[in-house]
Specification:
Blueprint lengths: L1 H8 L21 H7 L3 E5 L5 H10 L4 E5 L24
Parallel strand pairs: 1-2
Length: 93
Amino acid sequence: MVVQWEDRFHGGNRAHTYLGAGPGEAPYPDFVTIARGFRCGTRRVADKKDMDDALEELIDSTGPFVLDVQVPFQEHVLPMIPSGMTVRDIIKA
């Protein structure tokens, strides 16, 4: 979401933003491995087509579950409320 803030409020100026591991590299931090260490159910989703199955697995889980959804840094997460603003200032698009 830092990239989203940089794009929306700072003209796309990047300030030491870590954009994640490249294709074929393990993500950092690896939340799936961390969750397994705590005996949590886990799943990583990198493709939208796998999301429905992953959500069903999460819902059917009988204990704690970490769903690690890999989102390209170019994707903006909406709606969002800018810092210091209220729900009346929500950004929808």
